[in-house]
Design goal:
The protein has helices at residues 9-25, 34-54, 61-90; strands at 108-118, 121-130, 136-146, 149-161, 166-173, 182-190. The protein is an alpha+beta fold and 192 residues long. It has a 3-stranded antiparallel beta sheet with strand order 1-2-5, with no helix packed on it. A hairpin with a 2-residue loop joins β3 (136-146) and β4.
Length: 192
């Protein structure tokens, strides 16, 4: 009877988790799962290689190495996905008026209206017009400014604006009105 060969469970786990990390890294929505999965695959791969060196009968050195490589690829894809999301959402100030966000500028018209003090809140209000033929919801993010410096940022979601229709938004910040000298729409995000 041939001698039995034990398996290296750590190496197998590294390979499986590495494959999952890489898989999630290329998907649009769950890409963020590739970061922790890649780290787990890397750790399991290191432990699997160590076990393969200590117990040669266990084998699995190649599986452990493949798991490590796939884990690193998954983490890189996760970081790239995160950078892409942050760049698209937070730093899209390409519109001529400096308003960024996930709602394409061609899908709405914005009247920034006014900024005023109401009770203990500073309020920014205006209107947004849906310039498409479909119902959309928008998040209007307003920055409150004092002496050129941002002191607060708040938002309001305007729900179900019919195509071609206009809706009011009102954004409040619990600040002393004497501290605010301006408010500006910073970003308009598409909610639906």
């Amino acid at each position: 009877m041939p001698p039995s060969r034990s398996s290296n469970g750590l190496a197998i786990a590294a390979l499986v988790v590495g494959v999952l990390a890489t898989f999630f890294g290329v998907l649009v929505l769950p890409f963020f799962l590739s970061l922790p999965l890649g780290g787990v695959a890397l750790g399991l791969g290191i432990a699997g290689r160590r076990r393969a060196g200590e117990v040669p009968a266990a084998g699995g050195n190649g599986q452990a190495t493949a798991g490590m490589v796939l884990g690193i690829i998954g983490m890189v894809l996760g970081v790239l996905g995160l950078v892409l999301v942050l760049f698209v959402i937070d730093f899209d100030d390409s519109a001529p008026d400096g308003i960024g966000g996930t709602a394409p500028r061609s899908t709405y018209d914005l009247d920034e209206g006014s900024c005023f003090l109401e009770d203990d809140d500073v309020v920014a209000e205006g209107t947004i017009t849906n310039t498409t033929d479909r119902t959309r919801s928008y998040q209007v993010v307003v920055t409150f400014v004092d002496n050129g410096e941002r002191v607060a940022r708040s938002s309001d979601v305007v729900h179900d604006v019919e195509g071609g229709e206009q809706a009011d938004y009102q954004v409040q910040a619990g600040l002393d009105g004497d501290e605010i000298d301006d408010c500006r729409v910073f970003r308009v995000n598409r909610v639906t």
